[in-house]
Design a protein that fits this description.
The protein is mostly helical. It has six helices and no strands. Helix 2 packs across helix 4, helix 3 runs antiparallel to helix 4 and helix 5 crosses helix 6.
């Protein structure tokens, strides 16, 4: 596998990661040779990663890419369509924006600073507008 990755000018880190996933894939299937494994076996491995080990979505994608590379380029046995794989999902993250009251409650000194900075910005904008119009 390493030789096949090197001929395609993949990085050493990619090589290390793909070899890691190849070993995990083979050990998951009780050390059966990958030539004996089919799409259903790939499906079970990827589903196990998503559900059993709760890996992150990018990790799951890397494992899929490594197994695909193993089958496609090393074993030269292209996979048929793999259906029903449970994919790892990215957590939905909403940005947390504190309200002005939250900021002032946590940092009492910030309230006056925020007001001062806002006043300066407003003053600068109005001074710029006046100079632009030639009034200053």
């Amino acid at each position: 596998m390493a030789e096949s990755l090197r001929t395609r000018h993949c990085s050493r880190r990619t090589e290390q990661a793909y070899i890691h996933w190849m070993r995990r894939f083979i050990s998951f299937h009780a050390l059966n040779h990958p030539r004996q494994l089919r799409e259903g076996d790939v499906n079970r491995f990827l589903t196990h990663l998503a559900i059993g080990e709760n890996v992150a979505a990018p990790t799951h994608n890397q494992a899929l890419a490594a197994v695909h590379f193993l089958c496609e380029h090393v074993l030269e046995q292209p996979l048929d369509r793999i259906e029903g794989v449970v994919r790892a999902s990215r957590p939905k993250r909403l940005p947390v924006v504190p309200t002005r009251d939250d900021v002032e409650a946590r940092h009492p000194l910030v309230g006056g600073l925020v007001t001062a900075v806002a006043g300066l910005v407003t003053f600068q904008k109005s001074a710029f507008a006046l100079s632009w119009q030639g009034l200053v």
